[in-house]
């Protein structure tokens, strides 16, 4: 059959197939060679930003890294932990660290070209880095990261174009195996490998984050479909009707994300989270600007002034950033929108969200760079406004809830005295415990102000009815 134009084809399609398939078929038929293909950005159709299968172990040449990685949770405790159990681990921990210092500096060339092996190497090395640093006795001096870890980690990170430190990808995206390898990647079929603190709370946090990522795959479908619509279709009633439906669906998905966040209240214990789990994720800058941070031995300019060493945060989840890009949430306050930003909004760390992009794998960052926002289309099509606004409102509700979670899990804990069972020294300043200042997040940002500014930026995306 020959159609005089894509729109004629669309009309014919609409009369013959289920309307939910129209956009997908239309995009496939009429997009050009530079079509948006998520797999080019290491985004899988079924597992999204997760790799489609668990990462393979590193080749035998790297057996020392793999063995130290597997043994670390049983051997090491937080350096600031003075509990009996932690004290009983001290000498084995010192041995583990001296062993790591004695490794030769391994060449990573044989891993280059295989993205899965590079990802595994990043996950293993970044975890070794955090085990090493955070199991040391607390100190006010700079922490020297041995060259056996520092040099290959920096090289692998350059290959992947991401920060040489523990990230969301290392803790959540790459840190699992399948319980039953014959079944697909689903939250109830994933077992997390490295649990720094050994707590169920840490495991539950990773699983909830995984649930967000996998639910997010449904959002990515919507973004990808939109991405492949030619601009000429924006005036077509069928396309607009389907887009309105997709935006409505997006709002429902975001509401489901809020439910996943809510479920964390039952599985993630605030006290364990703050005192036992979070300190392991902290980066070189989390103790504030006066701490000298970390020095990567053998790496030119190997300090936090030159390397991104902020540490791991769910704020690095590419799926959440993709949602922001698609809806065009203006975290930097770069566009004039109403209501005008408050004083605290302006004082917030406006570069935080953009900075988090550097902690994502380079391919995922490229995906975000290529993703277009639906907002300019909605601005010209009043029929889309309600469903767009519904999606924005759903995201604002999610951020409201996230702020409440952070108040319970971080803000009220900051500056408080650790419960006796953690046997931590009060003054030692676990991440965010600065006695006289506001709670700080990964990378040292003031948490409350930052998150409220993000919530208000979301609200500001609403289009006037
Ligand atoms: C117990 C649960 C959680 C706590 C205590 C928590 C805590 C925080 C904190 C303190 C920040 C500020 C920045 C930082 O420190 O890195 C933050 C930001 C962020 N978190 Fe969470 N988080 C939780 C769950 C999650 C989950 C499950 C996700 C999604 C995968 C998520 C996504 C984000 C995002 C995208 C940001 C950036 C700011 C924003 O988008 O509003 N968080 N979180």
Mind telling me the CATH class of the largest domain? Answer: Mainly Alpha
How many domains? 2
- Note poorly predicted spans: 427-436
Give the total of beta strands: 4
Remind me, CATH topology of the largest domain?
A: Methane Monooxygenase Hydroxylase, Chain G, domain 1
In quaternary terms, these chains amount to single chain
Second rung of CATH, namely the architecture of the largest domain: Up-down Bundle
Question: Helicity level, as a percent range?
Answer: 40-55%
Using the alpha-carbon principal axes, give the shape. Answer: globular
- Spatial gap, N to C terminus: 42 Å
Task: Give the number of helices.
Answer: 17
The ligands found in this model are: protoporphyrin IX containing FE
Layout: helices, strands, pairs:
Blueprint: H1 6-16, H2 19-30, H3 63-75, H4 84-102, H5 115-135, E1 143-145, H6 147-160, H7 168-173, E2 176-178, E3 190-192, H8 200-227, H9 237-267, H10 270-281, E4 294-296, H11 318-327, H12 343-347, H13 352-356, H14 362-370, H15 375-380, H16 382-411, H17 447-459
Parallel strand pairs: 1-4
Antiparallel strand pairs: 2-3
Helix pairs in contact: 1-2, 2-9, 3-4, 3-5, 5-6, 8-9, 8-11, 9-16, 11-14, 16-17
The structure holds protoporphyrin IX containing FE.
């Amino acid at each position: 059959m020959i159609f005089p134009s894509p729109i004629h084809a669309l009309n014919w399609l609409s009369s013959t197939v289920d309307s939910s398939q129209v956009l997908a078929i239309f995009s496939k038929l009429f997009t050009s060679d530079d079509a948006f293909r998520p797999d080019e950005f290491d985004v899988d159709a079924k597992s999204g930003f997760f790799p489609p299968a668990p990462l393979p172990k590193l080749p035998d040449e790297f057996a020392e890294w793999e063995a130290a990685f597997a043994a670390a949770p049983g051997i090491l405790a937080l350096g600031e932990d003075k509990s009996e159990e932690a004290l009983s681990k001290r000498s084995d921990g010192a041995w583990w660290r001296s062993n790591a210092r004695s490794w030769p500096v391994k060449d990573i060339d044989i891993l280059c070209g295989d993205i899965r092996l590079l990802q595994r190497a990043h996950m293993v090395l970044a975890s070794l880095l955090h085990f090493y640093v955070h199991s040391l006795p607390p100190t006010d001096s700079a922490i020297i990261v041995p060259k056996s870890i520092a040099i290959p980690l920096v090289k692998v990170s350059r290959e992947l174009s991401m920060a040489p430190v523990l990230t969301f990808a290392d803790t959540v995206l790459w840190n699992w195996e399948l319980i039953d390898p014959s079944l697909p990647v689903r939250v109830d079929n994933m077992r997390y490998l490295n649990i720094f603190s050994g707590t169920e709370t840490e495991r539950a946090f990773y699983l909830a984050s995984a649930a967000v990522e996998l639910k997010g795959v449904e959002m990515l479908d919507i973004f990808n479909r939109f991405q492949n619509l030619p601009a000429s279709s924006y005036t077509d009633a069928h396309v607009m009707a389907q887009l309105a439906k997709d935006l409505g669906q997006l709002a429902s998905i975001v509401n489901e994300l809020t439910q996943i966040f809510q479920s964390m209240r039952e599985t993630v214990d605030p006290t364990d989270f703050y005192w036992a789990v979070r300190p392991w994720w902290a980066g070189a800058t989390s103790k504030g600007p006066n701490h000298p941070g970390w020095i990567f031995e053998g790496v030119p300019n190997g300090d936090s002034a030159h390397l991104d060493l902020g540490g791991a945060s769910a704020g690095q989840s590419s799926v959440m950033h993709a949602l922001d890009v698609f809806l065009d949430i203006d975290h930097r306050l770069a566009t004039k929108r109403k209501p005008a930003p408050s004083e605290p909004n302006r004082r917030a760390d406006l570069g935080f969200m953009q900075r988090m992009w550097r902690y994502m794998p380079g391919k995922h960052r490229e995906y975000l760079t290529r993703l277009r926002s639906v907002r300019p289309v909605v601005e010209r099509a009043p029929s889309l406004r309600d469903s767009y606004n519904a999606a924005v409102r759903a995201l604002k509700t999610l951020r409201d809830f996230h702020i409440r979670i952070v108040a319970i899990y971080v803000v009220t804990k900051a500056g408080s005295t650790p419960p006796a069972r953690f046997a931590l020294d009060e003054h030692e300043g676990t991440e965010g415990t600065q006695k006289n200042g506001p709670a700080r997040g990964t990378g040292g940002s003031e948490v409350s102000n930052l998150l409220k500014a993000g919530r208000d930026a979301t609200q500001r995306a609403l289009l006037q009815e």
